[in-house]
Structure formats: structure tokens, C-alpha cells
Design a protein that fits this description.
By secondary structure, the protein is an alpha/beta fold. The protein is 39% helix and 17% strand. The protein is built from 14 helices and 15 strands.
Length: 397
């Protein structure tokens, strides 16, 4: 009873002092290791949310933790008025392992997408014509919660109440190449999308769609821009998600899994597009600071080890296969879908009770809309742990 009162006290203080921007579960997590977290009572949970695709290497990965510790006692922060060694090292790794030639560091996915929009507009003004500034994005998309990225986001519930929003965005149905063609006009400078929509419900595009979008951008001379905040950093079984689709963007954004739990975002671009940025056109005080980049460097070194991403891909196929098998005989499941270890079940009833019941059984999952249960486990999850979740899910459903 004493422990219950202690938890209730902290939850009451949380509700007293923090702005009510989240619907929090009545759970106080205090420790994590690998795929598992523990609450203040010592209860153990298998984490199939990974901080919403942030802890891609699990909690407190030893290599990442040591890199943070070593950097914390060496140099925490200096401004971008000077050269920063961990920043240079991380940028080099990103360029060597992706399509990009240049990197800009910031602190979050929203900031990375904001930077991408600014870069696209600046590039268009300088090299495509002053009238070209509009970006086409997708219905169901999610790009962040700054005013500009909310405007880019294709979900009315995210934008509601913040009007008037910045202009310059058109939303078309995800997966509909004809609608995209119709939306292109003389003011269009680029197309921005997620290769798999995360917050929209883990929506996988129709076969060939992402390739068609790339081809249309080439045909029309538009910037091909990819939000890889959730699909990047190994989540789909490749370092960046677009590699699964065989396409190459001009611009891509990263965050979430890049820092292994430390806040960091990145804008990646090709050489010719990146040249639109010059000193004074964009900046971030904390962007690319030594601590965050040391963590990111450690994450990259683990993820680029031979076989790591192949193993993620194989486990994703195994997980999806088991979800589809479950869906074949559970009438409450409308769809099982996903790519790599970014998976979901769409139900014909609210998902919240299922998520709550799984939590009671020791499994943390996350919602995506009202009727979707999303699974974003650490990429180091074992097949035996996937089996444990599926057995519990079978009982809950």
C-alpha cells in the first residue's frame, strides 16, 4: 500500500506541474535495459514501443551508454561557431552510408522537417524560380508539431485549433499517383512523404507507388523529399527506409533512433540541393552538440555492423507472419501490416483496451489512431520475445 501511495503522489505531482499535452498511462518507469523496462515497483515490461521508435538499440545499450558517459566528462557543449569533432564524425558516417553529401544537425524530427522545408523553399527560389514554393504532402502524414510542420501534416486533428497555419502545402491521398499528378502546378517545388506512414496507422504504400513518386518528381523537376524520422535508422530493415523501395531522394530527415535515446535530428541532402544553405540561412544552438553526436556515432557504428540490418529484416518478416496468422482466425482484426519492425494490427474496435490489457500482462505497445495497435520494438528484440508478445496478444484478443 505504501508503494501505491508513493506512485499516486508522483502521478498527482505530474498532473499538477506539467501541462496536459499527453494522455499518460498510470505507469512510472524508472529503469531500462535492452528490450525491457521496470517501473518503480520493480514490475518488468517487454517494451514493444521503444519510446516511439527512439530506443532502436534498446534501453541503455552498453556502447551508446559508454559513449555518452565518456563525452559527458570530456565536453558537453560548444557552439556551432567552432568545429565539433563528434559532429564531424557522425556526419561522415551518415554520408558514407546514405545517399547524402551534406548533413545539418538539429534536435528533433519536427526541427529536421522544418529545416527540410526551408531548404526546399530556398533552393526553389534560387534555382527554380521565385514562384515555386509549394510542397505536396500526403493525407494521413505526420511531420511534426511546429506551425510549419503541422501545416505540412495531412491530419486535420493535428492542425485543428491552430489556424491560421502557414501556407504552401497541398495534401493528396497517400498511394494515389493520379491525385498527385493532378495536384502539381506551376508553384510546386517538391513532394514530401513518409515511405510508410507511422502516426497515420503504419500505412504501407501500394506496390510501385514510392517509385512512381520518384519518377514523377524527376519528370516534373521537383524535389523528392522523404521524412525518415520514424522509418529511418534501421526500422524497416535498412539503414534508411527508402532503401527498401529502391529510390533515392534529394532530401531526407532523421531523428528518433539516431541518438539511441538522446535528442538529435538531422537533415540530409545531396550536394546540389544543400548548396542553397549559406551562413545565416539556418541554425540551431544545440544542434549537433558533442553529447548528442557522440551517442549518434555509437548508434551508427552498431547499426552498420555486418548482418545487423539483415537480422532486423528477418525478424520483421517473422513478426509480420505471426501477426497475419493471428489475423486469419481473429475476427476482431481487420488488417495486419507493416515493414521491418514497424508493424501494426488494425482492429474493428477501439485499441485502447487491448493496449491496457497487454500492459497488465507486461507488454508495452502504443496506439496509432483509435483502432490501431502499433509495434515498434527495439531492433535487438529476440524471436522468443516476439513469441511471448503474440501469445499474450492472442489471449487478450
Amino acid at each position: 500500500m505504501h508503494e501505491d501511495r508513493e506512485v499516486a503522489k508522483w502521478i498527482e505531482l505530474s498532473e499538477r506541474y506539467l501541462m496536459p499535452t499527453y494522455r499518460r498511462y498510470p505507469l512510472l518507469l524508472v529503469r531500462g535495459r535492452g528490450t525491457r523496462v521496470w517501473d518503480d515497483k520493480g514490475r518488468e515490461f517487454l517494451d514493444f514501443g521503444a519510446g516511439i521508435a527512439v530506443c532502436n538499440l534498446g534501453h541503455c545499450h552498453p556502447k551508446v551508454a559508454k559513449a555518452i558517459q565518456d563525452q559527458a566528462i570530456t565536453l558537453l557543449h560548444v557552439s556551432n561557431l567552432y568545429h565539433i569533432l563528434p559532429q564531424i564524425q557522425l556526419a561522415q558516417l551518415l554520408v558514407e552510408h546514405t545517399f547524402a553529401h551534406k548533413v545539418f544537425f538539429c534536435n528533433s524530427g519536427a526541427e529536421a522537417n522544418e529545416a527540410a522545408i526551408k531548404l526546399a523553399r530556398l533552393y526553389a527560389r534560387r534555382f527554380m524560380g521565385k514562384e515555386r514554393f509549394e510542397i505536396i504532402t500526403m493525407e494521413g502524414s505526420f511531420h511534426g508539431r511546429t506551425m510549419m510542420t503541422m501545416s505540412a501534416t495531412g491530419q486535420e486533428k493535428v492542425r485543428r485549433g491552430f489556424e491560421p497555419l502557414p501556407q504552401g502545402f497541398t495534401h493528396v491521398p497517400f498511394g494515389d499517383i493520379k491525385a498527385l499528378k493532378r495536384a502539381i502546378n506551376p508553384k510546386t517545388c517538391g513532394v514530401m512523404l513518409e515511405v510508410v506512414q507511422g502516426e497515420g496507422g503504419v500505412v504501407v504504400p501500394p506496390n510501385g507507388y514510392i517509385q512512381e513518386v520518384e519518377g514523377l518528381c524527376k519528370e516534373k523537376g521537383l524535389l523528392f523529399m522523404l521524412d525518415e524520422v520514424q522509418t529511418g535508422m534501421g526500422r524497416l530493415g535498412t539503414l534508411l527506409g527508402h532503401e527498401r523501395f529502391g529510390v533515392t531522394p534529394h532530401i531526407a530527415t532523421l531523428a528518433k533512433g539516431l541518438g539511441g535515446g538522446v535528442a538529435i535530428g538531422a537533415l540530409l541532402a545531396t550536394e546540389d540541393v544543400a548548396k542553397a544553405f549559406e551562413p545565416g540561412t539556418h541554425a540551431s544552438t544545440f544542434g549537433g552538440n558533442p553529447l548528442a553526436c557522440a551517442a549518434g556515432k555509437a548508434v551508427m557504428e552498431v547499426m552498420t555492423q555486418p548482418g545487423f540490418l539483415d537480422d532486423v529484416k528477418e525478424k520483421g518478416e517473422y513478426f509480420l507472419g505471426r501477426l497475419k496468422a493471428l489475423a486469419s482466425y481473429k475476427g476482431c482484426i481487420k488488417d495486419a501490416r507493416g515493414v521491418g519492425l514497424m508493424l501494426a494490427l488494425e482492429l474493428n474496435r477501439p485499441a485502447a483496451p487491448v493496449i491496457a490489457d497487454l500492459m497488465e500482462k507486461g507488454f508495452l505497445t502504443i496506439p496509432s489512431g483509435e483502432r490501431v495497435v502499433r509495434f515498434l520494438p527495439p531492433l535487438i528484440v529476440e524471436r522468443e520475445e516476439i513469441d511471448l508478445l503474440l501469445d499474450a496478444l492472442n489471449e487478450v484478443l
